[in-house]
């Protein structure tokens, strides 16, 4: 019974898409609460019920997305418009190669990859859709807040820090991000510099590119604002990182990030969220009467 959920866990790449910032839909006790763009859209209009897709992959860069995006399920003529969140977060600068800088996506490659992806979406999304491009994260946050803390494997005997874990993974050449998970401050800064360059490419695409079936917006990855909000709630920055891998955002970070994204959309792009359904209460009552189906 201990391993009954392994098949599902492996197909999800040991991630938790059902609790994620964009498509989360389940409540959880794994270390936070579930809040997501999907749940907020569903509350706004019950017609969004179960209308979600999580098209992702661990390590999925802008290049990988050119193939992943083809699994999008949307009928351009019969379906409602979609909201697409395009976010590679750090995967265009993260790799485990010895010469990590040489294997990062260049600004020219980023421009080509993203424009190709958007052109594909333009051929598949219903008219009136929206695409939000999310900038890359500043991953120096990881080392700055975790390197001298004990990893869960080392908490009992106080003998394994995240710094040691990162070095071990790098030694095995399986580090998820040699550019940020390193004691080399110069390398961490160069990695963040490239990430900023790629974010600026996304920002320029949102400013200058036009498409027939959707409008394009850009927002910075809200890590700084998330940390500030969590601090106001009495939390510590390291709690925003998933403790086992010491790399991905935690469920807490996802929930707070949702609130920040939602507020930005309400104030700057209200039409993206669609109108509230005045019959929501009646629809919810029918939904409950039918056993939630």
Keywords:
293 residues, mainly alpha, 3-stranded parallel sheet, 10 helices, globular
SSE layout:
Blueprint: H1 6-11, H2 37-44, H3 65-68, E1 83-87, H4 107-122, E2 129-134, H5 140-146, H6 162-171, H7 185-208, E3 214-219, H8 223-232, H9 251-268, H10 280-289
Parallel strand pairs: 1-2, 2-3
Structural description of this entry:
It holds the Pfam family Lipase_GDSL. One of its GO terms (molecular function) is calcium ion binding. The chain is mainly α and 293 residues long. The protein has one domain (5-287). The chain contains 10 helices and 3 strands, in the order αααβαβαααβααα. A 3-stranded parallel beta sheet has the order 1-2-3, with helices on one face. Helix 4 (107-122) links the parallel strand 1 and strand 2. Helix 8 packs across helix 9 (251-268).
Q: What is the total number of structural domains? A: 1
The level of helicity is 25-40%
What best-fitting shape do the alpha-carbon axes yield? Answer: globular
Count of alpha/pi helices: 10
Structural class: mainly alpha
Q: Describe the main β-sheet briefly.
A: 3 strands, parallel
Biggest sheet strand order reads 1-2-3
The number of strands is 3
Write down the Rg: 20 Å
Alpha carbon gap, first and last residue: 28 Å
**Secondary-structure element series:** HHHEHEHHHEHHH
- The fraction of residues in strands falls at 5-15%
Uncertain residue ranges: none
* Average pLDDT metric: 93
Provide a compact summary of the structure:
This protein is mainly alpha-helical and 293 residues long.
